[in-house]
Amino acid sequence: MFIFTTRCPRYGRIGEASLCALLAVALVSPLSSALAQTAPVHAADSVRTHHLSEVTVSGAHRNAFSSVNKIDVPLRDMPVTTSAVSARTIEQRGIDDLQEAMKNTTGVRANNTYGGFQHFTIRGFSNFVLMVDGVRDERHNISTSAPSTNLANVESVEVLKGPASVLFGHSALGGIINIARKRPSADFKADFSAAYGTFNTRRIRAGAGGPINDKLRYRVDFGMSDTDGYRHSGSNTNNGYLALEYTPTERDLFYLTIGANKDIYDTDTGLPMLEGSKLAPGMDRGTRYNDPADFLKHTRYDYQLKYVHRFNSGLTLSDQLSYYNDNINYFSTEELSFNATLDSLNRSFPFYFNHLTKPLQNQLELTYEFDTKGISHKLLAGYSLSLLDRKTYNGDVFGPGKNASVSVRNPILNQGYIDFKDTYYRATMENVHGIYVQDWIKISEKLKGLVGLRYDIFRGTYFTDEVDTDRNVTSEGPESKISKSALTYRAGLVYQPLEALSVYGSYSTYFKPARRVAPNGETFDPETGYQGEIGSRLEMNARWTASLALYYMRKNNQLEALPGGVYKRIGSAESKGFEAEINGSLLPGLDLTAGYTFSKAEYLPYESQEINPVAGKRVAFAPQNMVNVWLNYEAQGGALKGTSIGAGVNSMDETFTNSANTFVMPAYTVADLALGYRIGRVGIRLNINNLFNERYYANAIYANQFSPGATRNFLVSLRYSL
């Protein structure tokens, strides 16, 4: 076993750093290139055995690259808890973005800030890893939030609850959110849809896929979504996607995906609340107080190439190489503060940054199936490499509109010219090596086990350089280095007293490197944590499943950012609770997704004699109770054949927005309704969201700046499928 590092150029030349990273990956996995010359097996039609289970290359089904379990094992045989949002639910509910999709999952709370930044709390903690087709999106692990484009090319969204460091590396305490994109099909398929709705919402989606010849298949998708938005917090998202699947022989499969999006959002700073989380007199919930010059722009290009070689029925090797170029350009009012008479607001903190993130990642994995004395094994061994190249430009904001005041009532939003210029950038250069092994064990027909172990080596270099307005470096700052390693593991057992019933227990650990560097150069220990869980799963006739899980999670070595760039250790937090979920088709044409979550997440006292002022307080953005229900029925025959009706409810308990619990968003319940009709290849649907026009707050920033949820709104969509 060899661990190596490469010395790449210091940040200024991104092209050189990326080329160096590519060479490093080429050194890591020469075996995958050599395998392209070997004689192979055929990968045929696509059938997915389960939302999250790995599907191997064979005559009956092929590798599902979006899998977050990575092995060909039914979910009922795994000691894990999962949720999934299918393409069917996405269509029925008229869902267009990841935040909306998450309201159909149990145990997940979505938060959208500044108009387009999305982040999620899973089981009470905000530590999660977002993935696209099984590849980590590192932006969330650095900045906690990031924008995601519309879901035009998405087949499903999968959530794996609890620590997942063994298979996917650091930072996954709450869990994994995996976006699984559409894949090439054996037969030609095409679809087109257009929609129009409240707030001048317009959407167009088009996609097609099928065989080019007996060895090559394709899938292309395009999506455009444009809306003026509630409170004039609009967005325009545009994306395109191409997937190619090539099986030159019966033992080899190549899978290439290319995606791109160009999006822009009107930023939204929310409404500043008074003490007691009350709205100021005369303030209109529908008014947005941002400067017209504010913006959030997101441009992204991502590429993935996976190669799979099947040596025989029990031995498979795969290598997945990925790279994306992500540009987030942001300029916005971030803070609103009242004057003494509460009749005007000061835009007290206009802020600019430009994140340029370019991670290169590679996963080399070997799967081996074998038996030992009547016990079956599915062994997975892997090596992952992540090379992160990121620059964040910041600068000065200037102009007569800087720090302007606007009236609370009938504000004049344009208060004069305001602009920005670059003055420095902050560099983040990281490489992470991960070696992992996992074994799924079938001890008997009723007893299965899972054990896994991973060792990560994290190396980070951080510095700040001054630049001129053309972004040429004028002064180099000192480098700070962080070097950490961690061992994580998981183990679990599944017992099946009946064929339809599984009972399981598991224990798993987590770590997250502390990337923060104090002004004095001090670095901090990584966050660590663990989860213990017991649960059960009932599967009836492969049509519907019901699950129940009880868990305890703990997170240690937390930091809190204080004014002046100072960081304070705030100790540990715990989350304990349970989830219940039912999902599937109860009757022909009747689809149900429903879940209930109870999660009590609190900060803990310090282990030392020092008093933790937030001990016993609820963790921010971690409501205790959440309910999600979606029920849809489509008539299967008779005069009403093709007619459908759907109804859903999302209910959330009160949610504190800071660790001191001084501000709280009240509890709310929102109901949605959908009516549809389908005849032949054509379908029409009416979605009514927030049916009873509930007044509620959906998101918050700076603890006291709340963003109201949208009022009642409509969407009419027309779909044509081939």
From TrEMBL:
Domain TonB-dependent receptor-like beta-barrel: 285-691
Signal peptide location: 1-36
Membrane topology: Multi-pass membrane protein
One family name in Pfam for this protein: TonB_dep_Rec_b-barrel
Major location category of this protein: membrane
Family statement: Belongs to the TonB-dependent receptor family.
Record has Ion transport as a keyword: yes
Keyword annotations of the record: Cell outer membrane, Ion transport, Iron, Iron transport, Membrane, Receptor, Signal, TonB box, Transmembrane, Transmembrane beta strand, Transport
Keyword Nucleotide-binding part of the UniProt annotation: no
The organism's place on the tree of life at top rank: Bacteria
Domain TonB-dependent receptor plug: 75-176
Gene3D superfamilies, A to Z: TonB-dependent receptor, beta-barrel domain, TonB-dependent receptor, plug domain
Compartmental location: Cell outer membrane
Protein's UniProt name: TonB-dependent receptor
